């Protein structure tokens, strides 16, 4: 470290040790924060977290003239702020001598003589008590290593325990372990030199930390289980389906084991039943539940033949979920028995009423992604408010998409806040049905596809940045980040190919990310890491290290291996070098590009939301997606109701492959885009039913005008004829 002169890498004590090869600079983060003669004069992305490189050099020169009052060596950059005190020291020396460093406001430092102390009254209980973090004994003494809670009289802590707790919990979850007070507790701990980082808790950042909560309880707990296949056997829609307690959900029974004839019957476990029995409420609840059940079903039905109205059964009509969509604004829109139904309606759709744990978890994950993408849509719409009506035209050659896009983005008149119009220069005259929006959608789609397969990214599905010296020289990483930001805000598709490691580096900073073996795209490097990781004895480990010593030396990871456990640190060093340190310059350049239109800032404010579009491919279009996308404008006129019913049925036929067109074709016909942009459509797609012969896709208004026909077959024929021919002519 240029400030303290130590090579120790201990983030808990000295903060992250950061090395900047381009500046020939290594520094401990806390040494930098606490230095007395330097301030953050730059933005967060300038220099070292806002500390300009020139200022750091000046501070090193200033400290070189000051001698440390503890180790007697030069370079003491920290001084006590007490009036008339002239003591100076290095940060590690200050910790060793029990100085106090306050990580707030102007980052003050106090020497061992002038440091703040906690007040101890005569009424304080004498004798040791338990530290509520490590549960070891702590003496009630006014010493540096002991801290007491300002909000609880009997809460005492080891200073070291509190510091580790603060680093783990972060500013949002660090609080008194006894009374949960946050404001008063944090204020006192900051005064006494506890560093509370401004980040989320470590357990919130851990991937799949709460995965166990998604498991659904499936076990028969009755005293005598009748199922021959065991208590864990669960067969949906049979007497061997497991029903969970309606109150606690942590006990279960096979329907047959509790003589239950229908899934709709409620069941309570013995524990919950005894609780309600003691309170005198059990009999009342049971009577009310039975009465409700009788009103709902009318008659008791056998389990093997559930009633048609059972909520756990598919409704026979595969369009039932569509007909219940809130986006359909009809006064009397409902399925009618006398209407002619499409062929797909004549066979009951095989939707499994009860999903397995795996399918249920997958469904929950998809729902979570949809919710997050909806959140991103609103955020991107806020960013789009920056876009002005003034237009910038890009002349694009589809056969050389990258060069023409790069030329357009680098032209002097280009501004990301201007409305973008795209003209494909190598195409023949456009049709009247085409719009600039359609060309723009197609351009961004081709551009994202090119970026995904370009040399600046490496990997299979989840990609990281690669090291391309030519791309660094031409500043292509910056341009790539800029293009992705512009695509998101201007209605293009999201990349969807970022690895979680790359996303975390962008959002949390590379110093806070630990890469994994899957992040290594180079096969030779991956094999080397694998050999080291799975070496089962010391001799094979040393042999592997000897074989690749040149590579390890070049990576700065070569170290003597004296024990088998050394392989873990070696693997981490190689991963960190290859995935992160090696691409420091490209990563920083890419981050700068993503700052265009404020996208990176929003990513850092809403990481979970943006992860859903940057690290996950968009959902495949489905009939339900298209139905929710379009708002149907209709009235109580019966013909229009039939038309809406035909439209919903047609979507099902297209999804099931009983049509010559696809759902993407329908979307392209109406909006000019075969995908749903991350920001959504503007204006939102609508449907109108008119007395016309053929459907019309108005791409300026994103409006689909549909004909009112007497039969479903007529409706389907006109739809397929028009959409297929229109798109075929456009492609030709």
TrEMBL record:
PROSITE patterns: EPHD. Residues 297-319 are annotated as: Disordered. Residues 366-393 form a coiled coil. One of its GO terms (molecular function) is ubiquitin-protein transferase activity. It comes from the Eukaryota. InterPro entries: EPHD, HECT_dom, Hect_E3_ubiquitin_ligase, PHD-type_Zinc_Finger, PHD_PHF7/G2E3-like, PHF7/G2E3_ePHD, Znf_FYVE_PHD, Znf_PHD. Pathway: Protein modification; protein ubiquitination. GO terms for cellular component: nucleus. It holds the Pfam family zf-HC5HC2H. Keywords: Coiled coil, Ligase, Metal-binding, Nucleus, Transferase, Ubl conjugation pathway, Zinc, Zinc-finger. It is found in: Nucleus. Residues 1-115 form the PHD-type domain. This is G2E3 ligase. The lineage of its organism: Eukaryota, Metazoa, Chordata, Craniata, Vertebrata.
């Amino acid at each position: 470290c240029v400030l303290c002169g130590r090579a120790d890498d201990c983030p808990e004590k000295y903060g992250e040790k950061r090395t900047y090869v381009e500046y020939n600079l290594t520094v401990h983060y806390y040494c930098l924060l606490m230095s007395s003669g330097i301030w953050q004069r730059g933005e967060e992305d300038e220099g070292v977290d806002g500390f300009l490189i020139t200022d750091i050099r000046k501070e090193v020169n200033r400290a070189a003239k000051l001698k440390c009052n503890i180790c007697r060596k030069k370079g003491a950059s920290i001084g006590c702020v007490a009036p008339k005190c002239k003591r100076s020291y290095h940060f590690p020396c200050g910790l060793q001598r029990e100085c106090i460093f306050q990580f707030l406001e102007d980052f003050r430092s106090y020497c061992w003589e002038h440091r703040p102390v906690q007040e101890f009254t005569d009424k304080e209980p004498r004798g040791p008590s338990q530290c509520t973090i490590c549960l070891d004994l702590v003496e009630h003494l006014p010493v540096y290593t002991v801290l007491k809670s300002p909000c609880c009289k009997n809460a005492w802590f080891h200073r070291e325990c509190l510091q580790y707790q603060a680093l783990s919990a972060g500013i949002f979850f660090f609080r008194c372990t006894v009374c949960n007070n946050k404001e008063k507790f944090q204020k006192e701990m900051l005064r006494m030199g506890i560093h509370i980082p401004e980040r989320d808790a470590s357990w919130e950042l851990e991937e799949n930390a709460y995965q166990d909560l998604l498991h659904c309880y499936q076990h028969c707990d009755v005293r005598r289980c009748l199922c021959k296949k065991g208590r864990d056997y669960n067969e949906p829609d049979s007497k061997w389906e497991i029903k969970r307690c309606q109150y606690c959900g942590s006990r279960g029974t096979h329907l047959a084991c509790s003589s239950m004839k229908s899934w709709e019957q409620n069941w309570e476990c013995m524990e919950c039943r005894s609780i309600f029995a003691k309170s005198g409420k059990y009999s009342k609840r049971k009577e009310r539940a039975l009465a409700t059940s009788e009103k709902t079903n009318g008659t008791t039905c056998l389990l093997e033949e559930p009633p048609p109205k059972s909520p756990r059964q598919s409704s026979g009509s595969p369009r039932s979920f569509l007909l219940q969509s809130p986006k359909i604004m009809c006064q009397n829109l409902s399925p009618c028995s006398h209407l002619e139904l499409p062929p797909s309606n004549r066979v009951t759709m095989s939707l499994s009423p009860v999903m397995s744990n795996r399918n249920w978890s997958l469904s929950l994950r998809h729902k979570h992604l949809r919710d997050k993408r909806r959140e991103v849509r609103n955020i991107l719409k806020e960013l789009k408010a920056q876009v002005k009506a003034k237009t910038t035209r890009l002349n694009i050659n589809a056969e050389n998409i990258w060069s023409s896009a790069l030329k357009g983005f680098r032209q002097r008149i280009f501004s990301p806040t201007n409305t973008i119009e795209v003209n494909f220069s190598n195409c023949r005259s456009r049709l009247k049905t085409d719009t600039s929006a359609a060309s723009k959608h197609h351009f961004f789609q081709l551009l994202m596809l090119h970026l995904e397969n370009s040399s600046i990214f490496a990997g299979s599905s989840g990609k990281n940045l690669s090291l391309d010296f030519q791309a660094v020289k031409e500043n292509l990483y910056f341009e790539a980040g800029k293009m992705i930001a512009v695509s998101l805000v201007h209605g293009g598709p999201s990349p969807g190919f970022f690895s979680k490691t790359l996303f975390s580096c962008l959002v949390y900073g590379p110093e806070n990310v630990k890469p994994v073996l899957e992040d290594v795209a180079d096969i030779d490097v991956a094999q080397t890491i694998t050999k080291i990781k799975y070496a089962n004895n010391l001799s094979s480990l040393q042999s592997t290290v000897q074989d690749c010593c040149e590579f390890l030396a070049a990576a700065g990871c070569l170290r003597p291996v004296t024990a088998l456990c050394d392989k873990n640190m070696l693997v981490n060093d190689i991963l960190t070098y290859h995935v992160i340190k090696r691409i420091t310059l490209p990563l920083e350049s890419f981050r700068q590009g993503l700052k265009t239109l404020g996208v990176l800032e929003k990513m850092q404010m809403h990481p979970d939301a943006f992860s859903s579009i940057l690290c996950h491919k968009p959902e495949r279009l489905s009939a339900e997606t298209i139905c929710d996308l379009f708002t149907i404008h209709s009235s109580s006129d019966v013909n229009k109701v039939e038309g809406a019913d035909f439209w919903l049925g047609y979507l099902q036929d297209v999804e099931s492959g009983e049509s010559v067109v696809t759902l993407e074709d329908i979307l392209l016909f109406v909006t000019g885009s075969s995908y749903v942009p991350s920001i959504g459509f503007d204006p939102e797609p609508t449907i109108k039913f008119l007395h016309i012969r053929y459907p019309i896709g108005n791409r300026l208004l994103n409006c689909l005008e549909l004909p009112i026909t007497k039969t479903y077959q007529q409706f389907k024929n006109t739809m397929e004829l028009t959409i297929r021919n229109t798109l075929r002519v456009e492609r030709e």
